[in-house]
Amino acid sequence: MNAVPPVSPVYRVPHPLPLDSGQVLEGCEIAYETYGTLAPDASNAVLVCHALTGDQYLASPHPITGKPGWWERMVGPGKPIDTDRHFVICANVIGSCMGSSGPASLAPDGQPYAMRFPVITIRDMVRGLVALLDGLGIERLHAVVGGSMGGMQALSLAANWPERAARVLVIASTARHSAQNIAFHEVGRQAIMADPAWAEGDYYDADAKPDNGLAVARMAAHITYLSEAGLTEKFGRRLQDREAKGFGFDAEFQVESYLRYQGSGFTRRFDANSYLYITRAMDYFDIAEEHGGKLANAFRGTEARFCIVSFDTDWLYPTAESRHIVHALNAAGAKVSFVELSAPHGHDSFLLEHDQLDRVVKGFVE
């Protein structure tokens, strides 16, 4: 990962941040971006939570890649999350690497935490977000919105800080990580830790970084973000820049070149240790476990309105996972709507052009 000076505002949490592990994080910093204007009574705030490899650059250019914000099509003036009406906040989660406290941050001894950084959970990430809201003077969100890991944060906020959000929009997500998801993450973590340059996590001052391991981790994960039909449509078995098979192990198929491109590009903007910590946080995620083993218990008494969205080709967090959340919300007597959208692109559909999703988001957030 390239060193990038922080360009976002950074909020320093004025108290030790308690963590699920029993440890505390001293001097926790949260990097964030905002869009729009906060109303005098702070009633128009919308918190958008990012996915595993996302960041706070929701609707503004990424300082490393120069690419547009990851949900720029959804957030802005006149867009489904309308910044003419709403004050939109997106913060880099703790454990990540774009300005918030994470393994690359300096510990009190002046050296990077590396693997000394405490293991975190999704609920810990949300503790950091709630601290940021306190710092911004926002007691109750108009809405919290998130897709994938962002959806986990939205659910965690609703379950553990029910007074903080009036609307909860969860897209392509789950209330717990399945064994299959944990398995894919473990493949990625092992790829990173098997890279000699990982050096037990102490690579920040070294010339070599565990880029090869991180790239393999990204490639494995990226497969889960797509659908088989989408991959077949886009690449099929077509060869890349050649007319015939080479009988070797270069990237001969187009799909191989695509995955290698995804892997190498990822290493320029993400920290390998952050990947370890965030995937572990997702694997620990189980809201029912946090509330006596019954998911409905997490939402009893909630006054928030919920909207749960899934995609029919998402095999990472399939529709059954969303229905499980909806059934729990029904059992808890919560106000909830649910829609399964058809899309050919699998889990990543929430990041791509989708008119029906736009209408759902606009209708719910307004």
What would your notes on this structure say?
The protein is an alpha/beta fold and about 375 residues long. Helices cover about 35% and strands about 15% of the residues. The chain is built from 10 helices and 12 strands. The protein has helices spanning about 120-135, 150-160, 180-195, 210-225, 230-235, 255-265, 270-285, 285-290, 320-330, 355-365, and strands at about 10, 15-20, 25, 30-35, 45-50, 75, 80, 85-90, 145, 165-170, 305-310, 335-340. Strands 1-4-8-5-9-10-11-12 form an 8-stranded mixed sheet, sandwiched between helices. Strands 2-3 form a two-stranded antiparallel ribbon. The protein starts with 9 loop residues before the first strand and ends with a helix. The model has no long low-confidence stretch (mean pLDDT about 95).
Layout of strands and helices, then pairs:
Layout: E1 10-12, E2 17-18, E3 24-25, E4 29-35, E5 45-49, E6 75-76, E7 81-82, E8 87-91, H1 122-136, E9 143-147, H2 149-160, E10 167-171, H3 179-194, H4 211-225, H5 228-234, H6 254-267, H7 272-284, H8 287-290, E11 305-311, H9 319-331, E12 335-341, H10 355-365
Parallel strand pairs: 5-8, 5-9, 6-7, 9-10, 10-11, 11-12
Antiparallel strand pairs: 1-4, 2-3, 4-8
Helix pairs in contact: 1-2, 3-4, 3-7, 4-6
